[in-house]
Amino acid sequence: TFTARPVSGENYIFRLNGGIVKNTSSNFYTTNSITSQSTVTVEVTLSGCSAIDTSTVFVPRITGVGSINAASDSTLCPGSFLGTLGNGGGGAVAGGATLGYQWQSNLGDGSGWQPLGTVTTTAAFDGSLLAINSTTSIRRLTLATINGVTCSSPSNIVTVTTSVDRAPVISVSS
Fold first, then answer.
1. H or E stretch including 150?
2. Secondary structure letter of residue 166 according to DSSP
3. HSE-up of 80 (CA within 13 Å, CB side)?
4. 56-80 b/e with 16+ CB inside 10 Å = b?
5. Strand 38-46 versus strand 11-16 pairing type
6. Beta-strand pair 11-16/49-57
7. Residue 99 has pLDDT above 90, yes or no
8. Contact assessment for residue 21 and residue 34, using Cβ atoms and an 8 Å cutoff
9. What percent of the chain has pLDDT over 90?
């Protein structure tokens, strides 16, 4: 929402990238259609006098999410550690945004995607501290941040399964 100072009797002309989007006595313009860097201008007219103010809106933009790769063997014994998930390709951002990543896991138990650690600038994931106890899906969000606004887009999903068949069983016979 873009708001101009209200004064009785004024007329407000709001422009988005030069095109008139609102010409009214109302002092605000609300939109959710700005998806790239844009200019919003308001011209306020009262008794033949006018004033103009302009705001540039910067929108963080993700131009590529990249992909992630699992180790060649993605079936583990319950309680085993994941190891490193390889980077099949990093993400890319534009519009002056800062690139970041948030790794997430989903156990399929209805709790949805949960963060694995904090936001990082590293495209690969060190899962050496992540014990896998049940089938787990993992993805990486690519983040674009500018002026405190963050947009995200998910990568492909890698699923790591567990199998008790891989747990060794030792029996002793006499």
1. strand 149-154
2. G
3. 19
4. ebebbbbeebbbbebeeebebeeeb
5. antiparallel
6. unpaired
7. yes
8. no
9. 48
